Amino acid sequence: MYRRWRQFVILPMLIVLFFMPVQAFAAKKLIPMGEAIGIQLQLSHVFVAHDVLLASNQWMKGGAVIEKINEIPVKTLADAKQAVATQGQQKWTMKSEGKEVTLELQEQEATHVISFLKDETDGVGTLTYIDPETKNYGALGHQIVDSTLQEAPVFRAGSIFLASIQQIRKSIPGQPGYKISSIEKHQERLGSIDKNTVYGIFGRWEDGYPQSLPKAIEIMHEKDIKTGKAEIYTAIEGSKVETFSIEIIKIENERLEFIISDEKLIEKTGGILQGMSGSPIIQNGRFVGAVTHMFVEEPKKGAAITVAEMLRKSS
């Protein structure tokens, strides 16, 4: 779910004509989180995960949408599996690169191709905030982009779950690191995913969190943010959220740039990691924003969006 943005890499991606007045955020309080979350989207169609060469020497292209198998409409992976149970030669109808394509597959080949289909996309990110008044949440600070489709997928439903960090691959200049995580599926889901926007994912919090929530703090509007010391909340081991020091070095409207200054975090991660997107930023006890990007050649340097902007664009 990551893609490049000039010299940035989105951390494992809408314009809303709706602007809330500054006064509306004056006393707004949110709960800063920082937990690693597993993200799952149930897609609107069944897709081919990557290119598959058939016995006929024809290619089934990655990203193709499976529409029908043996004239049976396919909406889910379960539909596809049921349809290929038919014996003998099979007719697959799909939409690939904007064109309708029909392919003939033998029974054994069709069964093999099923393993290359998917009807969901998933990934790992960081939970940014929970609104104690509305029970809505925000996470990531950027859009989920499916790796096969190379775009934001159309989805039927989505869920977030608590994740546990099992291992870290450190960032080095030119090579972003990442978190290796497992989703705690044995627990209840934390919330639904209702929107997937360039400002993050948003949905309804469902109280599946296994412990008490932190205290809500006041958000900081863009005009009050200062260069200098701040903190980020994030998880780099298990599901424990820790606090790490940063320096905000640039403020430009709703965007920030910062440097990781915490030696413990640098030693453990090399700087910012993929999967750290959404980590809350706090300055002087107030909620500033969320980590969104890292500079590929300078992994200690990152970018962020203000939480005020996330709130404006969540409606």
TrEMBL record:
<feature type="domain" description="Peptidase S55">
    <location>
        <begin position="94"/>
        <end position="315"/>
    </location>
</feature>
<protein>
    <submittedName>
        <fullName>Peptidase</fullName>
    </submittedName>
</protein>
<dbReference type="InterPro" id="IPR008763">
    <property type="entry name" value="Peptidase_S55"/>
</dbReference>
<dbReference type="Pfam" id="PF05580">
    <property type="entry name" value="Peptidase_S55"/>
</dbReference>
